[in-house]
Every structure is written in structure tokens, then in C-alpha cells.
Amino acid sequence: MSGFIAIPVPIRPMLVLLLALGLGCEALFPPGHEGAALWTIRGRIYLGSEQIDTSSLRAAAVWIETLDLQGYGSVANVAQDARIDPSQAGRFAIGFPRLPPQEVLHPAEILDPALAGRDLRVAIGGLLFYDDRNHNHRLDLLPPGTVEPIDFILGPLESYSLYEFEGDLSDISVVKPGLNIYHWTGPGRGQWLPPDVELFVTLYPLPSLQYQMCQETPPMHDGGAESLEVPPDEVPTDWVFECAPDGRSLTYTYQRMEQPGGVCTDITLISVTAHSALAPGQAPPANWPCAG
């Protein structure tokens, strides 16, 4: 059974950013002050906009407390937060000094029905970076129906999920006991990473990220499909593409969300098929992912 758990349950499915909020008991430390942590996640932050105020930038590692088989989570509380020190050149370290609490551990069948009955449990969560706009040193969660946020989620734009396994992994090779990181590279696609890998996270002040501070996942509705032409120099670098045989055009898909009612109100999801093509004689830009 070494090949299963290849694609974890999608947290808040169909969204480009598949991170979720939840209950946790982690401690977050500045670099060099991790203490006696069981695991420490380290990484570097890149600011995608000059509008980000680094003086109030904070990070949080969080777990999902309630989870159903469709992957929807709700929020009970937030783990301890830590300030990101601009003098550290954007580096961060998040230490986990203890195991997740019992209330955030779920039967492993949430990942794969074949695991039903196995003595294996998993805690699922993620990382969030935010602007602490009211300077109270914690992420302020919002009740359903809230229109305006208090703090402001900044990312990461990259999709990393946290999985902490406890129990019988004797015939499973793709994950290890303890903390594992899953990097989503496209809808239903990604790769497992060890907890000691250095993460690279990009922050950007996008309104579409703000639902992640809601106490409950807002209701989601199908908004249909649309097509989009993308200039070659604006094609994302971290995604899954279908390249034409000659390498001069590509397509990729993602979900776009609309939330006109406010941060914790209903979300409409639109399935987007994006296409990009090089003009005749045009040299591929540096980020072009297809080879001829």
C-alpha cells in the first residue's frame, strides 16, 4: 500500500489556495529561538507588493478541528502567533513543541477510504501570514456573515498543507510519522515534502484570501466555466500545464472566486481554462514552462 495517500483530501476544495484554519497548540519562534521543538518549519518570505506593511506582519500555524469527507473545515481557535521580523531578511521559523491536541486528530480514512479501521490518525492544517491591523498580536476570527475583515490575510500564494500522522504507517512509504508538508502544484496535484525543507512563500494583498479568517467555511456555489487568454510573460511558474507538441502554446485550469457580499459570505467558484500561445517568431520568455 505504499502508493496511496498520493493526493490528500482537498482542504476547502476547488480553491487555488488550499489552506485551512483550525485549532492548534503550536509555538512560533523567531529564527534561532526554536527551543525544544518536535519539528520546525523554516522558510523565506517574498513580498509581492510594496503595499505590504512589514511592521505588523505575523505568521500562524493552525489545525482544523472539524472535518468531513468532502474536506470542509471549521475554525474553533487559532494557535499562538509570531511576528515576522523584517531584520531577518524575510526568514521565519515555526516550532511545534508538542503534538496536536486530540480534538484535531481525524481517522485516516479522511484521506483514503482504504484506511478505514486502521490505527492511524491525522491532523490537517496550514500556514497563514497576515497583517495584524489592530495590533492585538493574534489573528481575529470572524463569524459567518461578516462583511469586513479585521486583520488582512497576505498568503502564502503557494499552497502548503500540514499533515501530522500518528499510528500505523508500517506499509506506507510516501509519508512519515509526525509532521509532513504537502505542496499543491495544481488541482488535485502536488508532492510531499519533509518538514525540514525550506519553504518559499510569496505574500500579496489579495481580497480573495480573506475568507480564510472566517470561523466557518463560507457556503460555496458553482459559477460555471469561462476561458481566458494569458500573455506568455504572465503565465504562472508553479502550476500544472498541458503543453502543445511544438511547445509554443499551453493550457491550464484553476478556480476563480467571487464574493460580492463580504469576507464571510457566500462564495461563487468559476472554473477557468487559461490558454497562452507564443506569436510566430516570438522567443519564449524566461518563465515559459513548455519545451519544443
Short description:
This protein has strands spanning 27-29, 39-47, 57-63, 66-67, 73-74, 81-83, 91-96, 106-107, 120-131, 152-155, 159-167, 178-186, 189-193, 198-203, 220-229, 242-243, 249-258, 267-277. By secondary structure, it is mainly β.
Would you mind describing this structure in some detail?
- With 292 residues, this protein is mainly beta.
- It folds into two domains: 27-213, no CATH class; 220-277, no CATH class.
- Helix content is 0%, strand content 38%.
- It has strands at 27-29, 39-47, 57-63, 66-67, 73-74, 81-83, 91-96, 106-107, 120-131, 152-155, 159-167, 178-186, 189-193, 198-203, 220-229, 242-243, 249-258, 267-277.
- The strands form four sheets. Strands 3, 6, 8, 9, 10, 11, 12 and 13 form an eight-stranded antiparallel beta sheet that branches. A four-stranded mixed beta sheet has the order 1-7-2-14, with no helix packed on it. It has a four-stranded mixed beta sheet with strand order 15-18-17-16, with no helix packed on it.
- A hairpin with a 5-residue loop joins strand 16 and strand 17 (249-258).
- It is globular.
- The chain starts with 26 loop residues before the first strand and ends in a 15-residue tail after the last strand.
Notable features of this structure?
disordered N terminus, single chain, four-stranded mixed beta sheet, 292 residues, 2 domains, mainly beta
